[in-house]
Amino acid sequence: MDPVQMVDLKRQYLRIKDEIDAAVLGVVASSNYIQGPEVRKFEENLTHFTGSNHVVSCANGTDALMAALMACGVERGDEVITVPFTFISTVETVALLGAVPVFADVTPDTFTINPDHIEPLITDKTKAIVPVHLFGQCADMERIMAIAKKHNLKVVEDACQALGAEYVFSDGTRRQAGTIGDVGCVSFFPTKNLGCFGDGGALMTQDDNMAEKLRLLCRHGSSKKYIHKTIGFNSRLDSVQAAVLNVKLKYLHEYISNRKSAADFYYQSLADSTILTLPAISPNSTHTFHQFTVKIKDGLRDNFAEYLRTNDIPSMIYYPVPAHLQPAYSYLNHSVGDFPVSEQLCNEVLSLPMHTELTIQQLQYISKTIVNHKI
Questions:
Q1: Kind of pairing, strands 154-158 and 79-82?
Q2: Among 9, 29, 267, 319, which residue has the fewest nearby CB atoms (within 10 Å)?
Q3: What angle, rounded to 10 degrees, do the helices at 37-50 and 239-249 form?
Q4: Are strands 166-168 and 174-176 parallel, antiparallel or unpaired?
Q5: How many angstroms separate the CA atoms of 308 and 273, rounded?
Q6: pLDDT at 224 over 90
Q7: Exposed, middle or buried: residue 119 (CB in 10 Å: 0-12, 13-18, 19+)?
Q8: Residues whose CB is less than 8 angstroms from the CB of residue 238 and which lie 6 or more positions away in sequence, other chains included
Q9: d(C-alpha 134, C-alpha 295), whole Å
């Protein structure tokens, strides 16, 4: 059995090596590295994959969030409602614009924003809501969109971990993560379900005017060389990364299927485990299993992670400290206990190995090792 890895990008590459190498060398031969035809092709391909009207590529997921907030008119002094249990870029981009992150706690099962907590937080300064589709499944977008419509708020979906997930509305309508709000943001960081060989990101929108704003913002505010309609910044997906993504996008359904198969194995083999609680799947969303995140109570998480390590099984904690307790955000004057669900999750969550290349032998070894653990 090969060593278990948290993510095995090398084996994934080797499966499609000839296609990847040809695509990358094609860009090198063309010497068209910035805004080349591979970038336009990728935007078209992702538009088709997601069903979005527009896709605007950019340099990374953080830039996508920044551009989305700017395009939605978020300015200094505005308030943006989001969650403390997320990667920091969700909050960081709000703060960088001089706006105020206002936190709503998450649900203990899906780890996504609790819609019950949103409306009481809305003030005359609230400009937008940023739900995070964490670990591969969607937040409750039907309720979030209803609240946003009622209060005339923008919705920016942080779908950086959930490309390919589908939200199911009460009438049976299905929409891809990132295509429901005013703008959706995705990341192509190498470990994502669709990852490039460096940094990359994209924005999705159904609105023509919003798409134009996003393109301007990510291109120095310019649609014509040396003519700048607005203040923007430089955030471009380079042609090499676009070439890689064009190849890998063809396999994304397969990648998601492989992750689901690995997750199914975990669910079946660990169903009777007394040490952990398996992740819940929302009835309103499919799950792409960017992470397979369990909960371990009673302060046993760190000891259990060490037990896995001694048995050559990696694990990761996403995330050990919630945003409201990070030193950088002490100016918001939050304290321990303000968002109890997020704080509890930070003490309990542990992500097991999850990627496209997990073998049956590896899954059996991981599961057997967990089942044999003695509390």
A1: unpaired
A2: 29
A3: 40
A4: antiparallel
A5: 15
A6: no
A7: middle
A8: 33, 34, 39, 198
A9: 15
Residues in the chain: 375
Please give the mean pLDDT across all residues of the chain. 97
Per DSSP, 329 falls in state G
Q: Is 53 exposed, middle or buried (0-12, 13-18, 19+ CB in 10 A)?
A: middle
DSSP run (H or E) holding 345: helix 340-348
Question: What is residue 9's predicted lDDT score, i.e. its pLDDT?
Answer: 97
Q: In terms of Cα–Cα distance, which of 216, 221, 248, 219 is closest to 236?
A: 219
Phi, psi of 24 (to 5 degrees): -65, -45
Q: Facing residues of 102 across strands?
A: 81
Q: How many Å apart are CA 74 and CA 342, to the nearest integer?
A: 25
Q: For tokens 């969700």, what's the residue?
A: 90
Write the CB contacts of 233 (distance below 8 Å, at least 6 apart in sequence): 63, 66, 67, 217, 218, 220
Q: Which tens digit of pLDDT belongs to each residue from 30-79? A: 999 999 999 999 999 999 999 999 999 999 999 999 999 999 999 999 99
**What does the block give as tokens for 20?**
């990847």
Q: Considering only CA atoms, which of 290, 260, 291, 293 is closest in space to residue 278?
A: 293
Calculate the alpha carbon distances from 320 to 22, 290, 342, 352, 372 in Å.
41, 18, 10, 15, 26
